[in-house]
Amino acid sequence: MSPARITVAAYGDSLVEGWGLNPSDALPTRLEAALVRAGKNVRVLNFGVSGETAPEGLLRLPEVLEAKPQAALLEFGANDCYQGVPVEETEKALADMVQGLLEAGVAVLLAGWRTREDLFSQYADDPMLEGMIPLAPPLFNAEYVRRFNEIHPALAKRFGLPLIPHILDSLGEPLPGQASHFQADGVHPSATGTRILADTLAQAMLPLLP
After folding, report:
1. How many Å apart are CA 30 and CA 199, to the nearest integer?
2. Domains and CATH numbers, the chain
3. Tens digit of pLDDT for each residue in 157-175?
4. Distance in angstroms (rounded) separating the CA atoms of residues 75 and 114
5. CA of 10: how far to CAs of 29, 47, 67, 88, 171, in Å?
6. Between the chain's N and C termini, which has fewer beta carbons within 10 Å?
7. Strands (DSSP E) along the chain, which ranges?
8. Is 28 within 8 Å of 48 (Cβ atoms)?
9. Which residues partner with 12 through β-bridges?
10. What residue ranges in 96-178 does DSSP mark as E strands?
């Protein structure tokens, strides 16, 4: 008899939902395919919502738990730093999500987001990207960047979670002739990018699956 199908929740923002992509190229679909190739009988549910911050995502935790996943990819943070959400609010919301998942018996892979001080300035003189990335919020300064970048590593240590320090770390420069790993905004992965991310995340997710 074949083993019962494993449910994985991909829980996050636009990077999970698949902003700008066909559903077949979205990260949850690609992650499911990568895990199946690795021999797992798994379905990956898409709980990504574009534009959400961690406090907003926390409100959807009951919906995620209702699906009864055995494991979850948890990814929030990009919108928090774009909008200048106070670090303590982002950290508390993420901690509440992690705690709620763990208490329900869900294994958690935490995918972080690393920001930088020049995040906004590089887009200032590019009219093609006007409006795609907001102006730097008032709280966005060097101290905010330092504190924000400590959130995910600190939570991983606190809860004993496997961590992808920055979800986009595996997306380097494409090889000659290869499609770009990013869409025009330079933030959201392209279809090529999600395939690379899925392979990286699948390797980190495998030890969490029954």
Report:
1. 8
2. 6-208 (3.40.50.1110)
3. 999 999 999 999 999 766 6
4. 12
5. 10, 5, 11, 24, 19
6. N
7. 6-12, 42-48, 71-75, 107-111, 163-164
8. yes
9. 48, 75
10. 107-111, 163-164
